[in-house]
Amino acid sequence: MQFMASKQPENSLLGPESDSQRTLYPYVTGTSVVALKYKDGILMAADMGGSYGSTLRYKSVERMKPIGKHSLLGASGEISDFQEILHYLDELILYDNMWDDGNSLGPKEVHNYLTRVMYNRRNKFNPLWNSLVLGGVKNGQKYLGTVSMIGVNFEDNHVATGFGNHLARPILRQEWHENLSFEDGVRLLEKCMRVLLYRDRSAINKLQIAKITEEGSTISQPYSLKTYWEFSAFANPAQGAVGS
Amino acid sequence: MTKQQANWSPYDNNGGSCVAIAGADYCVIAADTRMSTGYNILTREYSKICKLADKCVMASSGFQADVKALQKQLAARHLIYQHQHNKQMSCPAMAQLLSNTLYYKRFFPYYSFNVLGGLDNEGKGCVFTYDAVGSYEKVGYSSQGSGSTLIMPFLDNQLKSPSPLLLPVQDAVTPLVEAEAVDLVKTVFASASERDIYTGDKLEIVVINADGIRREYMELRKD
Questions:
Q1: Distance between CA B208 and CA B205 in Å, rounded?
Q2: Cβ pair B64:A153 closer than 8 A
Q3: Is B165 a member of any domain?
Q4: ipTM for the complex?
Q5: What's the pTM?
Q6: Pairwise CA distance, residues B200 & B64, whole Å
Q7: CATH topology of domain A40-225
């Protein structure tokens, strides 16, 4: 890997000096994160897989973490960059606490900070290879936003990263509504995660669901979804074309 | 077969269209609220319009992260101007600032296609139109963004823009009344939404006149 890093790829963004410190491609990656607003706050789901290319290398990666008192951060993409972001946020929250002024950073502020960090790294051509989901509640106001590796950011009632945009968002657009109950929200998220499990090659059947409300955040113990494989077509897949 | 290499582009096009029309004593600025990437819709309710000063509003489409950064830059510079001059920036002054800000990043541009609209110091409507690196022009009306190729010819036809080759130079500020201009904008976006996949969801219209700033919304096609 050392020697490969110094070889210039064809579509290179590097100048004459080969800067081997810049991120060229991700190594250990997490797949989709899906999140939605519900009656009391935000629900977020992500599986626990860390893929190394096509190898499922790590199966207990926590891709969602609480940030401060009011926020929850979920990440897909390069896991080491996610850990770096957590480190930046640790420092951000620390300095916020050290003011000791009774105020604390809300989800909107954390999202804005993350957007600036991602955008600035993109400007230096050394991106943090993540798509982030930031959700939280402060003073009764629910907030759910997302930011991509090049700094594209927005907030909405439901968001997803990666494959979640293709498979989960359409389900959410159809079935999400204002003031979902906790049970309905979890059911809806599980529906999305099940589709992702069936159709996303990098998804694994071990997920966590995180909840954040005015009271605080909880991240569930890992569990798995029930799947159904008894379709008759699966029983004899080559029936229509034996030998293929 | 060579190993698949990941690669990334620092730019993306998040789509959308913007329009601005200047009148004798008003200015209409409008943009759709759809934000896309590739063939996906990211969100249906994202505002591309930003109020820069009391009588100066900017609508921008293109790469959303650059647009956001540009809006923040201009807002910060405006605050400094207010501290130093104890007054709001006029629309023509903001127009020059925007041009300079864009050109500053001539060699790593803001991928942002802007129209600036507002009232000049006499209270007359003015519209400025830009490219991504800051070349700009004061015009009577303009459109930018993914639907601009569909919208601009229609505006040329309806607003009967005088030829820029005529002498003496004729002002392209429209004689239309405010309500008619707003109606034209609605028509124009409804048409653009039919054929431009990146334009749709909702239309946000901002009207600036002597009374202040007014905001209006209209539903557009969601497909």
A1: 10
A2: yes
A3: yes
A4: 0.93
A5: 0.91
A6: 16
A7: Glutamine Phosphoribosylpyrophosphate, subunit 1, domain 1 (3.60.20)
